[in-house]
Amino acid sequence: MKIKPANLVPFLGIILFMTGFSAVSSLRQSLPLTWEAGFHKTIDGVPGKWFPATVPGAVQVDYAAANNWGPFFYAERWKDYLWMEDVYWVYKTSFKKPDLDKSHKLFFVSKGIDYEFDIFLNGEKIHYQEGMFSPVHLDLTGKLKPTNELQVKIYPVPKLAGFSMDRNQAAQSVKPAVSYGWDWHPRLVPLGIWDETFLEIRNTSYINDFYTNYTLDDDLSEAKITVHLKGKNLKGTTYNWTLRSPAGKVLFNEKGNIEGGKLATVKLKAPELWWPHDHGSQPLYVSEVTVLDKKGNVLDSKKQTVGFRRARLVMNEGLWQEDIPFPKTRNKPPTTIEINGRRIFAKGTNWVNPEIFPGTITRERYNELLDLALEANFNTLRVWGGGIVNKEDFYELCNEKGLLVWTEFPLACNNYTDSPRYLKVLEQESEAIVKRIRKHPSNILWSGGNELFNNWSGMTDQSLALRLLTSQCYLLDPLVPFIPTSPVFGMGHGHYVFRDLDGVTEVYQWMPNSKSTAYTEFGMPGPSPVDILKTIIPENELFPPMPGTSWESHHAFGAWVGDTWLMKDFLKDYFGEAATLEELVSQGQWIQREGYKCIYEEARRQKPWCAMALNWCYNEPWPTAANNSLINYPARPKPAFYAVAASCRPVLASARIPRFRWKNGELFTADLFILNDKYEETGAGKMTVSFLSEGRKTVIGTWDYKSASPNKNIEGPSIEFQMPPFSKGKITLLLEVEGRPEWNSEYDLLFIEG
């Protein structure tokens, strides 16, 4: 039968009920597809064999499942995937032509295909694209047959000629460089359909993009809201736009004709402001637009949540007072995040892909990891430029949870030269990225990428790629700050070990002598728990760990420079030869705990000159043997996670300690602090300082501190104590605040002579 507009929706509802199809909305109907995949070695070849494919996903995962391969992360199995980079992969699916009238069309929609691909319908090429972050919306209507075959042919992994198998091969593509191999990521380069993909029935008049933009006045008491809409065949249609409060109350209901891309402009008095979770609540308004025909029939609709906030990057206190006698150079650029007029100390981390294959990332995984970020007392996530730009679920959850997001474009540690082809793809991809993410209040900073001004990258302010990204962010999202890369002048990346590779200087010495405006990367390596190691290292290789085995493939040896990341020789120097794997892991995790505590707390002591402390890194995309992460794959906190959570509490007692190892008769010293990131007075009080050894507490001093002003630290006295003959092994420095046990802190140090 012929479907008429009036009965299209109920008819489709019957189809969806009978077939299990799910609806995107009452107006757009989504038809899922069943996919197969295969591969061939030449551009004009044909797959000789097909196997089931999961979408979203990755061809490597599907091939491995079809051939009953074991986990790719066990031992050296990841190497079995290397050949998959250099062949053409094909997805195919078939579907019957829906019975549509003239007012409806059938589209093929994909939110992400990785990376370069052709799309064919019934053997005819209908689309070519390079770029995994630009969505695909293809009108299939005029080319449909009673039964149709759709194919997506994915090209081999892009590789810049002249380079071996490393990240430099990614330097002329907008494909994340991390998958080409990093010190915590194997050489596994995903390919495939990596985000939601389906057929969709739409009206011939439909919305392409809907954006609720706003500006806040100087005192944040009023928001000027402008609604923008783009679509197809909208001439002669009207719109109905509503804005609802976080409680669901209709605040505005505007109607009118659609002319150009700009709809309503209104002013909202006293908007409820969106804050990071440690400074306030996260009210989210709902903006919805509906498009109607001349008879008042609904043609299409879109919704967007809106969080009203003003994000700025402002000069750190004291920067303008630096002695620069002549205007011969720039000052250090601003690195302090300001939200709604309030300076925020950014306590957080560097976020990396939660999976090797981004197509397998789920909302549940995002949610689990983001909840842990709240538990760690983090308020800021730097989405590192070597990895993917995350899916919508990530940003939606950050909006709800009050986590600030710094988004980098997918450029990292390479010289992305100014070739016309590369710049064209970068322009296309960056536009898609900014237009999607600018709608999220959680996104408060754009960055061109990771370590692009360093000597291993060689880019400068004049690199066209960075000038292009600056322009894109200004034109499309002008009120959110942009920096060309991290680090910029004044920021610090590193260090990444407990003791310098010269074998002399510990983190306890170099960190207090550092003076960075922001510590946007720093690491402290530690091994994974024994039970995880047993799932990735063959039993005959488990102990003792050795280079050239699966330990090395999983980043324990030769990962960065020197004896990283297991640091076996360093641990032996501090603790002696470990007799068991359990003992070795315990030693490494102890070092990671205390090293991270030192850096986070020292960065906070340097406030307001310093504005950020973001470790490298938060999570990992596969189970490593050792690295700098706080969370083992998939979402299991290391002991260091809980130590860092303690160091990032809004208010805490803190001690600056000169070194890790101590012995009988030495003069122990520690500088005392109250660290306060809350915008309220702490009140005065008393701190007691003690050592705990084998259950016995020895008081070494007290401090009667005054009240700390809002968002200000207090620097106290230096405690001195002659070390007695404690028992060899762990001794714990205790800071106990009278009446405020939630501010107490402890530090586990090593006593080497009894």
Description:
With 754 residues, the chain is an alpha+beta fold. Helix content is 17%, strand content 32%. The chain is built from twelve helices and 42 strands. The strands form twelve sheets. The chain has a six-stranded antiparallel β-sheet, covered by helices on one side. Strand 21 and strand 22 form a beta hairpin. Helix 3 (363-375) runs parallel beside helix 4 (392-401), helix 5 packs parallel to helix 6 (464-476) and helix 11 (581-605) runs parallel beside helix 12. It is globular, with a radius of gyration of 28 Å. Residues 1-26 have low confidence and may be disordered.
Main β-sheet: number of strands, strand sense, barrel status? 6 strands, antiparallel
The main sheet orders its strands as 3-2-4-10-7-8
> How many angstroms does the end-to-end distance come to?
92 Å
- Average pLDDT works out at 94
- Coarse shape: globular
Q: How much of the sequence is in beta strands?
A: 25-35%
Number of strands: 42
Query: Helices and strands: which structural class?
Result: alpha+beta
Percent of residues in helices comes to 10-25%
Low-confidence stretches: 1-26
Structure annotation, total helices:
12
Rg from C-alpha positions? Answer: 28 Å
